[in-house]
Amino acid sequence: MADVPARPFRQVLLKLHSRCNLACDYCYVYQHADQSWRTRPKVMSPEVIAAAADRVAEHVRSWGIDAIAVVLHGGEPLLAGPEAVGAVTRAVREALGGAVASRFTVQTNGVLLDQPMLEALRRHDIGVGVSLDGPAQANDRHRRYAHGAGSHADVAAGLDRLRADRFRHLYRGLLCTIDVRNDPIEVYEALLAFEPPTMDLLLPHGNWTDPPPFRVPGDPATPYGDWLVTIFDRWYDAPQRTDIRLFSSIISLLLGGSSGYEATGLDPVDYVTIETDGAIEQSDALKTAADGAAGTGLNVFDNTLDEALAHPGVRARQVGLEGLAESCRRCPAVRVCGGGHYAHRFRAPADFGNPTVYCADQLRLIDHIRDRVFADLRPALPATVR
Amino acid sequence: MKPAAQPEDDAYVLADGTRKLVDRKKVDRPVLLAILDRVDNNADLTTAYFTNFVS
């Protein structure tokens, strides 16, 4: 593992606010093994913001990086308010100076996308990604307020405001967590109705010890693969160009390119999380595996981001094949699958050396996409090599 | 299912040499053309490529 050089972080998640105005029942921050949110400050303080900005700038300078992406995240980051959104953006940009391009986005549940917030996001040039699980009946299965009411109507209203001419350029896309009980085409078309430039379809978090819904570990049935294949065919055959991250990533890998996504391929993972208290952490999704699984023991006051690069958990996700289970290394699809999402490989008490719990689903989807892509490419190749 | 130009030991990832033989004018699929261009132009995408999303 030591032979594989570290790669710098190119994306930083800033946990601007650690609480949420929704109470989604599958949330990886609140509803799974890790409960560290209970002891963290609700909002990132000016001191943490300043220290985080300095650490990001230090990292960028030491590696000679010319661009960095910053995602304002939560909880629900917009609970911090328009002033805080502006303050954190200014702090990072000032620390970076003029020589480094910074790209800011916020990942939000969309409920707080009102006019003052949208004006602040526009003023500070912050792109907006919104979480939505499809039509009302699908979305509101899980994405509800604490008092039980569904959030769809409020999110839809926020999306309508975001899509107005004045703000549309900020719109980055939709994130949808899959529930296989929902009709895939209804979900897809409901998402498309909001005209997202990009969307993604997320497998619900789970692992070998705490399996995802409707996924029996090791079972050959492929409910998620089948669900995704249905949408893939609709998307691939349509003339419109809304990008779907998971599908584009798999096609890119099949064509010999990079994945651009942590849940596919063997590319080194290159993002890091900074919590409201300044803790430097790994992928948030690891919070679904075990209490403290995302932690590194580092913080922005005492440690550099380079120190986080050396953390064994980060290293394990930068070493490609070497970091995978033996059965994955032998699998012919490994360069496309990449072993699946790291959080989905977990088995208690502390074992990530497994295939993803979605192995069968992932292979079903990859095989289907490969067959369709190669069928399209074959007539475009010289007859002698088809 | 793989094209014959592909090495026998890789049924999934198209070799660079195979991809370069693809006649783009004969690919009638906008999304596939777009990703072919992306692969040709961005050989070193990182996992932060889709910077608006983090799962």
Automatic annotation (TrEMBL), chain A:
InterPro entries for this protein = Aldolase_TIM, rSAM, rSAM_sf, rSAM_SPASM_FxsB, Sulphatase_maturase_rSAM
SUPFAM superfamilies linked to this entry: Radical SAM enzymes (SSF102114)
Q: Does the keyword Iron-sulfur apply?
A: yes
Q: Which GO terms describe its molecular function?
A: iron-sulfur cluster binding; metal ion binding; oxidoreductase activity
Keywords from UniProt, A to Z, are: Iron, Iron-sulfur, Metal-binding, S-adenosyl-L-methionine
Q: Tell me which Pfam families the record gives.
A: Radical_SAM
- Keyword S-adenosyl-L-methionine assigned to the entry: answer is yes
Give all residue intervals belonging to the Radical SAM core domain.
6-237
Q: Which Gene3D superfamilies match?
A: Aldolase class I
Question: PANTHER family from the xrefs?
Answer: ANAEROBIC SULFATASE-MATURATING ENZYME HOMOLOG ASLB-RELATED, RADICAL SAM DOMAIN PROTEIN
> NCBIfam families, alphabetically?
SAM_SPASM_FxsB
What is this protein's name? Radical SAM protein
UniProtKB/TrEMBL annotation, chain B:
Question: In its UniProt entry, what is this protein called?
Answer: Uncharacterized protein
